[in-house]
Amino acid sequence: MSTPSDGPAADPESVARKILLDQLTGQPRTRNELATKLAKRGVPDDVAKRLLDRFEEVGLINDAAFAREWVASRQPGKGLAGRALAQELRRKGIDDEVAREALDTIDPADEEHSARLLVRKKLRTLSRVDDTTATRRLVGMLARKGYGPSMAFSVVKDELAQADREAP
Questions:
Q1: Which of 12, 114, 127, 142 meets the CB 3.0–4.6 Å disulfide criterion with 147?
Q2: Which residues form the RecX second three-helical domain (predicted)?
Q3: What predicted TM-score, i.e. pTM, was given to this entire model?
Q4: How many CA atoms lie within 13 A of 54 on its CB side?
């Protein structure tokens, strides 16, 4: 019985090209994610850099476009604030300047609207707790989503008042 290692060694460039194309099928990826995948698969650094440069040159890898799409999908979809999105982009290997440009596309009014929707949804599940506990839980939830304390307290206070409850 033969194993794949019995045959001749594959050309590292062909292997790397196949890995890159497989990774880019279905969803965009950052240059850093692809470089990490190539390194894990044992592709030599010089081959990886050359192919990543080429893929970037022809537009198959575009970190700026990736960051804009990531922000556009995660901000309204998950209700994440700019700080949380910045952390996610940093983990994906997006340069801080590129991330900042993508995050600048978030309208502060949209961010506040997302926070309000999150609070309204969560508030329905907090009908049996006192107002102090509800405030603590709601502000904590918004903090985990990346909202700053001033916006979190302001939104929670307003939403509690609309629900005929009081913030402490």
A1: 142
A2: 62-103
A3: 0.78
A4: 11
Q: How remote is the C-alpha of 32 from its chain's centroid?
A: 14
Give me 117's structure tokens: 């929707």
Tens of each residue's pLDDT in the chain, 168 residues = 444 555 455 788 888 999 999 999 988 999 999 999 999 999 999 999 999 999 999 999 999 999 999 999 888 878 899 999 999 999 999 999 999 999 999 998 989 999 999 999 999 999 899 999 999 999 999 999 999 999 999 999 999 999 887 666
Residues 20 and 52 both lie in one domain: yes
Q: Which residue has the tokens 């509800």?
A: 134
In a domain, 6, yes or no: no
Answer whether residue 167 is part of any domain.
no
Max alpha carbon distance in the chain (Å)?
Answer: 74
Structural domain of 133: 108-162
Is residue 130 situated within a structural domain?
Answer: yes
**Nearest of 113, 109, 116, 111 to residue 82 by alpha carbon:** 111
Q: Where are the alpha helices (DSSP H) in the chain?
A: 12-24, 31-40, 45-57, 63-78, 82-91, 96-103, 108-123, 131-144, 149-162
